[in-house]
Amino acid sequence: MRTALAIDLGGTETRAGLVGADGQVLVEARSPTNAAGGPDAVIGELVRLVEIIREARPDARSVGLGVGAPGPLDSNAGIAIAPPTLAGWHDVPLAARLRERLGVEVQLENDANVAALGEWRFGAGVGTQSMVFATISTGIGGGIIADGRLLHGRRGLAGEIGHMTIAEGTERCACGALGCWEALASGTALGREGERLAASGGSPMLRAMAGTGPVTARHVGEAARAGDAGALALLEQEARWLGVGIVNLLHLYSPEVVVLGGGVSQLLDLLRPEMERTVRLRAMSAYRDIPIVSAKLGGHAGLVGAASLVL
Amino acid sequence: MRTALAIDLGGTETRAGLVGADGQVLVEARSPTNAAGGPDAVIGELVRLVEIIREARPDARSVGLGVGAPGPLDSNAGIAIAPPTLAGWHDVPLAARLRERLGVEVQLENDANVAALGEWRFGAGVGTQSMVFATISTGIGGGIIADGRLLHGRRGLAGEIGHMTIAEGTERCACGALGCWEALASGTALGREGERLAASGGSPMLRAMAGTGPVTARHVGEAARAGDAGALALLEQEARWLGVGIVNLLHLYSPEVVVLGGGVSQLLDLLRPEMERTVRLRAMSAYRDIPIVSAKLGGHAGLVGAASLVL
Questions:
Q1: How distant is the Cα of A101 from the closest Cα of chain B, in angstroms?
Q2: What are the pLDDT digits (tens) for A180-207?
Q3: pTM value?
Q4: How near does any CA of chain B get to the CA of A264, in Å?
């Protein structure tokens, strides 16, 4: 079977693996990312992880190495521009340096695009030509499959879906603007609303779950599953904001399917009724019946997607 | 020189022409569209117009016929699905019927995409790989060039940029939703605000310009050019809404240039300061310096764009 080497470089953990042409992860190795150590330390660790994989499967003939890394990065040039989660990285020619050290063809892509590609080739988007992948987590990121290929745009910066304005004069986003989708519908936003509710005395259950720490999206989800009325109301609001953003994505990209990943998507069963009601209410008729589904690849999305870059 | 036949089928007027490979319109013929007459009458007229063009240039060897028509339409199948401006058109196989009658290869595309293609090949977007074209007129339409080709999406319905939500609970759009870009920033919206201002006594100049009729965007533009403070304030608000929408388009498509067409774009000199201020304020840094320019092709955009489908 054809196989590909894959690296999923994250801000806290890095994985390497060997992935089959059927999308199965055959071997995997991982280590903490030395994010403070600078490019040389991290690249050394990437090389070491790939060598571990090669030693585990010395017979494998891989077609190349796909690498998913935090953006912004220039996928054509193979350069990591300035990933905020990695200290001291500025215009690092990551693809070229790995090619030199490992003697293999390297394709680099940002992590949201990699996850989208993995879901498209091997997950919830199989068989479509156009797909929107949105990861609802600390922030909101996205990757777009447009007419049978990954949408890049200038410098690979298309698909920054978390930073579309969907409301005026409301919450300020980490990016500095007001009313971004991410500021209203990310897991961080849901946690913030949970904290406000708990602080106002509106949900003793949330307060008890969080203890002396801040309320997180996970707490809101757990309290909602336990039937807490305040938490359920927060999820209804979350679902509505998700729906508004998805309506925009439908009109702008016209996908055949919307795939949701990230921590908040694990609450999809609770979010779905109000989210779908919002879509039916606001989308034009031709866009109303597009399925909204959960990502399928889970923790392997990064590796499988990275392998898809070369498979 | 290579040439192409082109049809620009509009709700009120239809044009046909012969366009050179350099984007120049060599011959042109036009007639009112019999929009109430149904598909047979309109198609008959299209055939007649093309025959006029052929008779005018009997020596021309055209590479095919490109047709721009009102959406929604399926460009792959060459079918006009249900254009709201043409009575009795439902799933009309327009490309096939013109091919039969005229004995020439036919490519069909919706009018906003055709205009985008024309600007990209021969107008304000020449030399780019990614471009957003937005026409700010009665409504707001768009066409997207993504990584070197027209973005279609499912059923060719990508790029409905007028119907992204950019504000909550504000103006209701013709599509039924609240807070669409079109409901806030189209020429119709600008006229509506002008009418409100005039009705409240806030601009005697606007009232005088409109007489007993409704205030239109054109009146607001003229009053602003004459220095009317109320009209200038309306344009500032218009510019801000345009800027918010453009910020979204930058983040979602990452174009190298944003091209504005339609009647409202003729006020670009007045709109630019506040529009660009809004972009600088709200866009992430990597997107702030993208040029926003006027469409170049003017009244010929439809024909030149249609010809680009086959050239």
A1: 31
A2: 999 999 999 999 999 999 999 999 999 9
A3: 0.93
A4: 22
